[in-house]
Amino acid sequence: MKKFFKKTLTLLLTLLCVISIATNSLAYASDDAIDGETAGKYFDAAVRLIMSRYKFDTSREGIYKDTLKTLLKEKPELLEEILAAMFDSLDDYSVYYTQEELDSFIENVNGEFCGIGVVITTVDEGLLITTVYDNTPAKEAGLMVGDVITKVGDISIAGMDISLAQSKVMGEENTPVNLTILRNGISFEVNPIRRKVVIESGFYQTVEDDTIGYITISDFNDHSTELTKKALKSFDEKGITKVILDLRNNPGGALNSLVDMCSLFIPTGPAITLEYKNPFNNITLYAENPQVKYNLAVLVNSNSASASEAFAAAVKDTKVGVVIGTTTFGKGTMQNITRFNIGGGVKLTEAEFLSPLGNKINGIGVKPHIEAEDKMVPYNRANLEKFTYDRVLKLGDEGNDVLAVEERLYLLGYSIGLPDKIFDERTYNAIYSLQKKTQLYPYGVADITTQLKLDEILRAANVMQNNSYKKAIEIFKDNSWSKYVSVSENQ
Questions:
Q1: Which is it for strands 321-325 and 295-300: parallel, antiparallel or unpaired?
Q2: What is the pTM of this model?
């Protein structure tokens, strides 16, 4: 009898256990395939179950740690996926790179890489093209400023970290890359062939009859500092003290370059403060410039990020210049790269930076003194110098008819500098590239057929109104520059 009772009790206990397991399982059962969100819910439910009912001591941290260690021990091939997910859970700028992605990123930072020759920034749909360099695969494929890259091959890059998305576009020399492009609401594909591209640091010139200097900087690196020094030397020789520094679409760059640039324009004193997790590591970097020589107008937009907006903030705080445009991007953090011995590595946010007066930039941006938005509008040739079709234009020619050609090349994104009525080498190269791309005879001469082609190409296009540049010229010409500089306001 005892034996029978013991067996019966054991069976009942077993059944109770089975019923309990079945009841908990049924609470989350589904006939549908488990997706990522559902799997996450199951995992959270399992952790809650352990924490609420498990007899022995444990902790959430211990569960997560032991789960990962067991998973990696049994499936080490999942390491990169787990690392990617780990860094993806942090801020927008911390990211894990595979070996190939890291190599591409480093090449891009160094300024020479195998790519297509564009400057980009992130938008909801993917990567917005803000600059297309001449004589590059992008220009030859017909890509234009304002185009959005939405896919690389079959991979959607919407919402992807910008550096990671860049690495997808870059690759081995002489290999094609399939890009899906969104232009004016219409999607199409192009297949440019990657090749080595040397990034231009920018350019400089004088405008308004040599009374104003203009410098545009594509990013902050040693080359851009050298270019700026060369430009300022040229302006000094002409007695120019009014300078427009164009940082629109400038994504930032190296910290040392930022400090060097500040030392050219702002007075000796704080340029930027870096705040780390450990406050004992916080540091303020200083500009060294005993004599402020220039009245600045700094052009920015929502794509001006990191070092470029830190520079704009320093200009505002020290009151050496007027900031014109739209509120900057708001990336006020600094990342460092760490390589892993097994390959790949991470870019991790390690510090937040503040302006000379201690103003925060991250998530806020820098508000300009003067709001001026460069809007995309339908092409209207009535707003430009008219074509007269009186002569064939060639290297060395000057006049309003040259201006008409240059204005249209500028709107198409060719690197001609600012339209200045002078048919120089830049204009020649742009005409040559246009003719080659449109299957006209390529000889760098703006003949009548080429002039007609310019209007034909632009007729159905949207073009950028250069409103912030026009405002900078206006405040220098009417001497209202100092009025804006004297205004005291927060970032």
A1: parallel
A2: 0.77
